[in-house]
Design goal:
alpha/beta, five-stranded mixed β-sheet, five-stranded parallel β-sheet, about 15% strand
């Protein structure tokens, strides 16, 4: 009978990791857990303390600090596979999963399914001939070297790319490999894993190549399995059920998706909402259940496409996905910096990034050219960003893989603030109060076209009080709205007052807040 060694890559929620491990090993399967080295040491200690005596659980010798799009994700997988191979000699299959996955079939069903299908389950299609990559780079992922993280070291990442492109520093793909691409989530037989691990020790040239490709978790295993295993022994699909929206973001499952998930021809599903407590409870009981009969209809993907398509053409009987997910998420925090002087807010955000590492986005609802990741098109115009603002924000949370996010918003966006303030997420606002000098107001009037180079000083003198009054009126409206968790950073206040305001807003120590508050020329024009 099949015995599965689950390869779990995770970085948060230690209680859920412990429950998942106990649930999956209770029926005779195994689990090897890689807990991201960038995550909390206390959380990792909690996991090892709870599972250390479980003979069906193991951990790799080394924890890797993982980053999206990096080789580190593949390295963490390889290290965890090594630990699983050594610890579980009776494991027949190795199933890669994340902390957001849950079983949608019983262990009894899963074991029988694998016994009846002697193949490797991995999505792998030709890298160049398929349309797996919908937008963005394709050949560039492979022929150039990528050493920096595109999300956390964006300037270095693109600077290195541009230098290589200008100098023509391309490289060749290993001649005997036909690069494949597909989903990261796979289930492979033991002999395939053993052959793959032997290959990694034998072919250093291939390892060097993939170490500097971009997003190698979508190509490394997919390519090597096709290279090592006969095509007849590969089932070109994942056993993990997941859906992607029009914007390329994973769809989240909720309590009312239980019956739909059980009807899919898959063993696990990803992603389960943290708020779907009843769904988690029911799926948690399912894996150990005996004698459950599953009616496989496998309509989930087509049903999702059908409903969203009806939404696009105006004939829908179900809401679009961004309307059903009406909240940013109760577990998330949205930190809003309100400012009329955009350059001051951006300077403040830069210091916050340096001191706290929190992801932050500048005036995305006010500036068309605000740097944003490719989110499938929803980010391309201010109109789209504002119209689908909650969908956009959820995508940014997922992109940065963070439950906390800072955004800058102009003080004129009162309706936008009211909308976010009504969300179930934890919303905090920080008003940046600045002196509205005549010099600043003059420059502002010129930038927005109220004045020109030839405007007389007399006319300008009459106009400035009106502009100043309008800006102060915007702030008064915001203050009159009496938003909860509202605080103020002021150019008129002393350092200690501003330190306290920043500490409350960011939920950081006084020392970190003071380092930000004492920044040189923070309020300078």
């Amino acid at each position: 009978m099949a015995k599965i060694a689950y390869i779990l890559l995770c970085h948060k929620d230690p209680e859920a990791v412990i429950r998942q491990a106990e649930r999956l090993t209770a029926v005779g399967d195994y689990m090897a857990i890689h807990f991201d080295a960038s995550a909390s040491a206390e959380d990792y200690a909690q996991i090892t303390a709870a599972l250390g005596d479980n003979p069906s659980v193991t951990f790799p010798r080394k924890r890797t600090r993982c980053g999206w799009g990096e080789w580190s994700l593949v390295q963490a997988t390889l290290d965890t596979l090594t630990a699983a191979l050594q610890s579980f000699p009776r494991a027949t299959h190795f199933y890669l999963m994340s902390g957001d996955c849950m079983a949608i079939k019983s262990a009894e069903y899963a074991h029988q399914f694998l016994d009846e299908n002697d193949t490797d389950f991995i999505e792998s299609v030709d890298y160049f001939d398929s349309d797996w990559i919908k937008t963005g780079w394709k050949e560039e992922r492979l022929i150039y070297r990528h050493w920096f993280n595109e999300r956390t070291q964006r300037k270095r990442f693109y600077a290195m790319f541009e230098v290589q492109k200008r100098l023509g520093l391309t490289r060749k793909i290993p001649a005997d490999l036909q690069v494949q691409i597909g989903s990261q989530w796979w289930c492979l037989r033991r002999r395939t894993i053993e052959a793959l691990m032997a290959f990694t020790h034998r072919r250093r040239d291939v390892m060097r190549f993939f170490r500097s490709t971009w997003i190698p978790d979508e190509t490394f295993f997919q390519t090597l399995v096709r290279h090592l295993v006969p095509e007849a022994e590969i089932s070109n699909r994942s056993l993990t059920f997941l859906l992607f929206s029009d914007y390329g973001m994973p769809v989240t499952f909720y309590n009312d998706h239980y019956d739909l998930l059980l009807g899919q021809n898959h063993l696990f599903a990803r992603k389960i909402s943290p708020e779907a407590l009843d769904l988690k409870r029911r799926l948690g009981l399912l894996y150990a259940a005996q004698g459950v009969q599953f009616q496989i209809s496998d309509e989930g993907r087509n049903l999702f496409d059908f409903l969203t398509a009806r939404g696009r053409i105006g004939r829908r009987f179900a809401p679009r996905f961004w309307e059903t997910e009406a909240s940013l998420g109760r577990e998330r925090e949205l930190l809003i910096i309100l400012a009329k002087k955009w350059h001051v807010a951006k300077r403040l955000v830069g210091r916050i990034r340096q001191e706290t590492g929190l992801p932050a986005v500048d005036f995305l609802f006010n500036e068309e050219d605000t740097p944003l990741p490719d989110l499938g098109g929803i980010q391309t115009t201010l109109e789209k960003r504002t119209r689908h603002r909650r969908a956009l924000m959820r995508m940014l949370y997922d992109y940065y893989d963070s439950r906390r996010l800072i955004v800058c918003i102009d003080t004129s966006n009162l309706d936008l603030l009211r909308d976010f303030a009504s969300d179930r997420a934890q919303v905090r606002m920080l008003e940046v109060e600045c002196k509205l000098t005549d010099a600043y107001l003059t420059g502002h009037a010129l930038r927005i076209g109220l004045t020109g180079e030839q405007t007389s000083q007399e006319n300008l003198s009459r106009l400035l009080p009106t502009i100043r009054g309008n800006m102060l009126h915007e702030v008064d409206q915001i203050r009159d709205a009496q938003f909860e968790n509202y605080t103020r950073l002021s150019e008129y206040a002393d350092t200690e007052t501003n330190t306290s305001a920043l500490a409350r807003f960011l939920n950081v120590s006084e020392d970190k807040a003071r380092a930000i508050a004492q920044s040189d020329n923070l309020f300078a024009d």
